[in-house]
Amino acid sequence: MENEYFKIFDEDRNEIGVASRRDVHKFGHWHETFHCWFVTKHKDTDYIYLQLRSDSKEDYPNLLDITVAGHLTADETVQDGVREIKEEVGIDVPFNDLEQLGIIEYCVTKEEFIDKELAHVFLYKSEHNLNDFNVQSDEVSGMVIAKFKDFSELWLGERETIEVSGFKTDKEGNRGTYVDNVGRDKFVPHQIPFYKEVIEKIKEKITVII
Fold first, then answer.
1. What does the domain layout of the chain look like in residue ranges?
2. pTM for the full predicted model
3. pLDDT band at 2; cut points 50, 70, 90
């Protein structure tokens, strides 16, 4: 993966060249990523799907994250990002079935790792259930759902924990039930304004039953 190359951008989002994955994160170049949040509705309640990152991941192992997310390489378009959905969670989703939420900037710095992303963010209104997911074990160890209202309140500072439920796979690929009450510390530490912006954009696309 260190041999991957990404397009890089200046502060005004002008493309200025290409750099390796290593240099992108070493020097803090702006680069493009693809994010897709799955939501579903059951008995008039909206839910959001979250992935549980593999414990073998170098960055943020065993933390909850965006349903699907990944980098766009230098030769890829935004539309090509749908490959991440199939690769990470095993579901084929046509690009035209996604609803665009916009490009959201965020930056996370951890020691010598600087992640400055121009995230192309999408929403997928899914009719799949948890049994339909076939996760890529070296990337994702499980999938869970949470009530969208609870997820929203967590990141708006209106509650301390939320319940998530789903499955987690072991090293042999066997699934086990996963249920937990989690706080913000169990999520990948994207900036709080990032989570808030995503939540507001999702709210514009769905009818939240309160």
1. 5-205
2. 0.94
3. low
